[in-house]
Amino acid sequence: MAVFALRSDDQYLVDTDGGSYVVDVGSDTCTCPDHGIRGRRCKHLRRVDMEIGIGRVPAPGERVAACAVCGAGVFVPAREAGAVLCGAHRPAVGSFVRDREADKLLVVTGVTRTRADEYRTSDGTRISDYGTNAEYGDHEPVVEAVYVGNAMRSPGPLDVSGRKRYGFPASRLRRLAPDERPHKPVIGI
C-alpha cells in the first residue's frame, strides 16, 4: 500500500493492488468496501496511522516543504509560510557553529523563517546584500548568532546577553562535530 497526503488536512489517498481509497483520519472513515460494510477500522485506516506515526507522510494540519539548503522534505504546519530547514541544516538555539567565511566561533540565538533576501539588519541592509554572503542562497532562512570572541576565556557560563546579534544565510554557518564543540554552558539567549 502506498499512502499520499491529499490537500485536505485530514485526507490521504491509499493506493493498493485492489484499488485506491480515500481515508479521512478526522472522521475515521475510508471509502473502501470493507469499511463501508463493517463500519470498523479497516487496514487502510491503520496503514495511514502507521505512516503518520513513523513520519513517512505529514500528520493532519501539516504539509511537506523543501529544505532551503538541500531540498529534503520537511513537515511544517500547513498554513505556515517562509523558508524552512531540515534537521540536518537547522542548528539548535544555544549550539555552537563556525562561520565559513571568517572561521570564527558563534553561538546560535535564533533560527528564523525569513529568507536572506527579505531579512533586513538594523540599518536596513538585506542579509543577501552583504558581499560575504554572495556564495550562499538568497532563499535560505536567516540564522541569528553571536560571535563568541574572547568571552570563552572568562570563567563560568558564556553570557551572550547584550551582545550584538548577526544574521547569516543558514548554509554559511557550519555545525560542529561533537569533538569540536566547546563544553561551556550558554546563558542570556
Summarize it:
The protein is 9% helix and 32% strand. The protein is mainly beta and 189 residues long.
The multimeric state of the shown protein is single chain
Structural shape: elongated
The description of the largest β-sheet is:
5 strands, antiparallel
Going across the biggest sheet, name each strand in turn. 11-9-8-7-12
Helices, by number, come to 2
- The chain-level structural class is mainly beta
Mean pLDDT: 92
State Rg.
22 Å
Helix proportion of residues, in percent? Answer: under 10%
Tally of DSSP β-strands: 13
- Portion of residues in beta strands equals 25-35%
Instruction: List unreliable stretches of 5+ residues.
Output: none
Distance between the termini: 46 Å
Question: How do the SSEs run, as a string of H and E?
Answer: EEEEHHEEEEEEEEE
Give a description of the structure.
With 189 residues, this protein is mostly beta strands. The protein contains 2 helices and 13 strands, in the order E-E-E-E-H-H-E-E-E-E-E-E-E-E-E. It has helices at residues 33-38, 43-53, and strands at residues 2-5, 11-16, 19-24, 29-30, 62-66, 73-77, 96-99, 105-115, 141-147, 158-159, 166-169, 173-175, 186-187. Strands 11-9-8-7-12 form a 5-stranded antiparallel beta sheet, with no helix packed on it. It is elongated, with a radius of gyration of 22 Å.
